[in-house]
Write a structure and sequence with these properties.
Blueprint (H helix, E strand, L loop, with lengths): L1 H25 L2 E4 L11 E4 L5 E6 L10 E4 L10 E4 L5 E4 L3 E5 L9 E6 L4 E18 L9 E10 L5 H6 L8 E7 L5 E3 L5 E4 L3 E7 L4 E11 L4 E6 L2 E11 L5 E4 L3
Parallel strand pairs: 1-3, 2-4, 3-5, 4-7, 5-8, 6-9, 7-9, 8-9, 9-10, 9-11, 10-12, 10-13, 11-14, 12-15, 13-15, 14-16, 15-17, 16-18
Length: 262
C-alpha cells in the first residue's frame, strides 16, 4: 500500500509538471506595443514557434528603443504575421543599438521573415546590424497613401551567406537562393534601404530586389554596396530604382544586375 501511494503521488507530480510546462508554453505572446519594453535590454530575443514571442506586431505610437539582439525563426512577412506597421494614429520610428537576424526554418524561405510597411503612416527601423541569413525582409510603402513611407537603416546590412546549406552538407558549390531583401514602392511616399554610412553586402545565397511602380522611386543608400560572388541584384518595375553608393562593388563572376518587370 505504501508503494501504491508513492506511485500515485509520483503521477500527481508528473501531471503538475506537465501542466506547468504547458502553461509556460502558453505564455508566449506577440511582441507588440504593449510588450515592447522587452526590446530595451541588451539581450537575445527569439521570435517564432517555441521562441520568447510568437510573432512581432508593432504599430504606430511605439515608444521603446530596440537594443536587443532579435532573431526571427518563423512566421510570414505580412501585416498579419511579423510586421512593423505604420498604422493607426501615429507613425512608427524605432531606433536603437540592437540587431535583427532573419533565420527562418520554414521549407520555403521567401515570404517568411519580417515586413516593414507604411500603412497610411510611415514606418522606419534603425539599428546597428541587420543580417538576413534565410528568409525575407520586405520594406514597402503604403501603396495608397503618400504619407506611408518605409525605411530600414543599419550600419551593416548582410543578405545571404557565402555558402549554401547544400555546400556545407556535400562540399559541392550550389547557387540556392535563401535570403531576400526587397525594397518596394507603389506610392509617392517611397521606400528606402540604408543611409550614407551603411555597408550593404549581398552574398551567394542573397538577393536584393528594388521594385518601383511607374513614376515612383525605390532607393538604396550606402557608403558601400557589394554584390558578392553568386549574389543577385534584381531591378524590377516601371518606375525609378535609385542606388546611391559611394563604393559599388560587383564581383566579376557575380550574377550582377538583372532587369525585370513588375
Amino acid at each position: 500500500a505504501i508503494f501504491k501511494r508513492a506511485y500515485v503521488k509520483g503521477l500527481a507530480s508528473a501531471v503538475l509538471l506537465t501542466a506547468g510546462l504547458a502553461a509556460a508554453q502558453a505564455q508566449a505572446a506577440d511582441l507588440n506595443n504593449t510588450s515592447g519594453s522587452a526590446l530595451e535590454a541588451e539581450e537575445a530575443i527569439t521570435i517564432g514557434s517555441g521562441g520568447d514571442f510568437d510573432k512581432i506586431q508593432i504599430s504606430g505610437g511605439f515608444t521603446n528603443d530596440w537594443n536587443a539582439d532579435v532573431t526571427i525563426t518563423s512566421g510570414a512577412a505580412s501585416s498579419a504575421g511579423n510586421a512593423i506597421l505604420g498604422s493607426g494614429s501615429d507613425n512608427v520610428a524605432i531606433t536603437g543599438t540592437g540587431s535583427l537576424t532573419i533565420a527562418v526554418t520554414e521549407t520555403t524561405p521567401s515570404g517568411n521573415g519580417l515586413l516593414i510597411v507604411g500603412d497610411g503612416k510611415s514606418a522606419s527601423l534603425t539599428l546597428d546590424k541587420v543580417d538576413v541569413q534565410r528568409g525575407e525582409l520586405q520594406v514597402a510603402d503604403s501603396g495608397s497613401n503618400s504619407s506611408g513611407a518605409a525605411s530600414l537603416v543599419a550600419g551593416t546590412i548582410t543578405i545571404g551567406k557565402t555558402t549554401t546549406s547544400e555546400d556545407e552538407a556535400t562540399g559541392r558549390a550550389t547557387a540556392a537562393r535563401e535570403a531576400y531583401l526587397t525594397v518596394k514602392t507603389d506610392s509617392d511616399a517611397g521606400s528606402t534601404l540604408g543611409n550614407d554610412q551603411s555597408t550593404i553586402t549581398v552574398n551567394k545565397t542573397g538577393q536584393l530586389t528594388l521594385t518601383a511602380a511607374a513614376s515612383k522611386t525605390a532607393t538604396v543608400n550606402a557608403d558601400s554596396l557589394t554584390i558578392g560572388e553568386g549574389g543577385l541584384l534584381l531591378i524590377n518595375g516601371e518606375g525609378t530604382n535609385k542606388i546611391a553608393a559611394v563604393d559599388l562593388n560587383i564581383e566579376a563572376d557575380a550574377f550582377g544586375v538583372v532587369a525585370g518587370s513588375a
